[in-house]
């Protein structure tokens, strides 16, 4: 089995050692992707696509993988799960891709899973729902932390603050629903009582009615599970109503875009997120630090502020290419097996070790608990 140096080599910026000969003379490795580059989830899909394009361009400039160029075949779903299924079919049947790295949202990822399982093609999702990898499906993997992990990390922090009564508010999309379910399920394990359970729609522009109900409870903190503009609206409405309770968000808002949308109201908000957002603040001995800084510097040098969502795409791409390199083949079954054997892989989301019973490969320690202070991320100790 080959050594796995592709990701760290590229992240640090050294010469790629896996290329051999002229990449353009060999059959390309085809990476398929369907992402929400436009529409309400564009804050996910846009950095994901930019990341895939940027790294594939760099890989090809340095010789490809085993002398083979990497080709990206991309479709924009606009956040529509039905379109995701159509594009996945096209990637598999027409474009003949070797592996799929994509699915910005939980809904789109879940919708294509039956298709990729039937087609027997490796699929690495970039979405958060635990349902993507629990129960384990043979051909499906993912790189982002799960909503269950987010709820657990948040509840751990609440326990430290002596919080036992929580008001839950969540979006009614796939991510919000799954996060709500996990928040409700995990609460008893941390001796936390959910004293309110409110929801909002993707197109809602004001959540004061739900938050007024929450204000009238004996909640000691508010937990919002959602993504897009909804969490920023909730955050603003909380402050507008004069609610001073601690406010927690999920990893679904782990980008500077949330801070921009919420403005000053974001001050003091806590959320679990990948270490990518605080890469410079990690100790020199942290095994992720070189990868995080390599990715951050490359992305921000080209596109501006980094987000954890682009980082998930980096992790998915590199795990797939490392597997192809170790398999010395694009045979789908061999690649699938090698993805499942991913061990001690330092990515932006954490250090991944997958197995037949774990198609994510991250523990709770892969999350950092962050608090927004003065418009920036700080680590909560």
From TrEMBL:
<comment type="similarity">
    <text>Belongs to the leucine-binding protein family.</text>
</comment>
<keyword id="KW-0813">Transport</keyword>
<keyword id="KW-0029">Amino-acid transport</keyword>
<dbReference type="InterPro" id="IPR028081">
    <property type="entry name" value="Leu-bd"/>
</dbReference>
<dbReference type="InterPro" id="IPR028082">
    <property type="entry name" value="Peripla_BP_I"/>
</dbReference>
<dbReference type="GO" id="GO:0006865">
    <property type="term" value="P:amino acid transport"/>
</dbReference>
<dbReference type="InterPro" id="IPR051010">
    <property type="entry name" value="BCAA_transport"/>
</dbReference>
<protein>
    <submittedName>
        <fullName>ABC transporter substrate-binding protein</fullName>
    </submittedName>
</protein>
<feature type="domain" description="Leucine-binding protein">
    <location>
        <begin position="28"/>
        <end position="360"/>
    </location>
</feature>
<feature type="signal peptide">
    <location>
        <begin position="1"/>
        <end position="25"/>
    </location>
</feature>
<dbReference type="InterPro" id="IPR000709">
    <property type="entry name" value="Leu_Ile_Val-bd"/>
</dbReference>
<dbReference type="Pfam" id="PF13458">
    <property type="entry name" value="Peripla_BP_6"/>
</dbReference>
<keyword id="KW-0732">Signal</keyword>
């Amino acid at each position: 089995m080959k050594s796995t140096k592709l990701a760290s080599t590229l992240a640090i910026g050294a010469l790629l050692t896996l290329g051999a000969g002229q990449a353009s003379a060999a059959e390309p490795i085809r990476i398929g992707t369907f992402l929400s580059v436009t529409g309400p989830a564009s804050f996910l899909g846009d950095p994901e696509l930019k990341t895939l394009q940027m790294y594939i361009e760099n890989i090809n400039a340095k010789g490809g993988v085993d002398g083979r160029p990497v080709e990206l075949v991309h479709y924009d779903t606009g956040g529509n799960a039905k379109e995701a299924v159509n594009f996945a079919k096209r990637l598999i049947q027409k474009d003949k891709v070797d592996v799929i790295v994509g699915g910005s949202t939980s809904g789109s990822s879940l919708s294509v899973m039956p298709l990729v399982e039937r087609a027997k093609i490796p699929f690495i999702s970039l979405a958060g729902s635990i349902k993507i990898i629990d129960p384990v499906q043979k051909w499906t993997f993912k790189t982002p932390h799960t909503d269950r992990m987010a709820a657990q990390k948040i509840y751990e922090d609440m326990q430290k603050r002596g919080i036992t009564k929580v008001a839950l508010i969540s979006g009614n999309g796939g991510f919000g629903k799954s996060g709500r379910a996990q928040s409700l399920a995990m609460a008893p394990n941390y001796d936390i009582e959910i004293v309110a359970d409110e929801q909002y729609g993707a197109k809602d522009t004001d959540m004061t009615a739900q938050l007024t109900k929450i204000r009238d409870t004996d909640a000691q903190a508010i937990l919002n599970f959602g993504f897009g503009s909804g969490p920023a609206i909730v955050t603003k409405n909380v402050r507008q109503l004069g609610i001073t309770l601690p406010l927690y968000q999920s990893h679904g808002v782990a980008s500077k875009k949330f801070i921009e949308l919420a403005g000053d109201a974001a001050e003091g908000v806590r959320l679990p997120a990948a270490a990518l957002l605080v890469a410079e603040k990690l100790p020199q001995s942290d095994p992720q630090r070189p990868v995080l800084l390599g990715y951050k510097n490359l992305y921000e040098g080209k596109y501006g502020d980094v987000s954890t969502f682009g980082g998930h795409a980096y992790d998915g791409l590199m795990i797939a290419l490392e597997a192809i390199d170790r398999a010395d083949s694009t045979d789908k079954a061999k690649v699938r097996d090698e993805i499942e054997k991913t061990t001690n892989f330092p990515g932006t989301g954490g250090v991944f070790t997958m197995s037949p019973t774990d198609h994510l490969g991250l523990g709770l320690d892969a999350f950092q608990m962050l608090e927004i202070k003065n418009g920036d991320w700080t680590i909560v100790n």
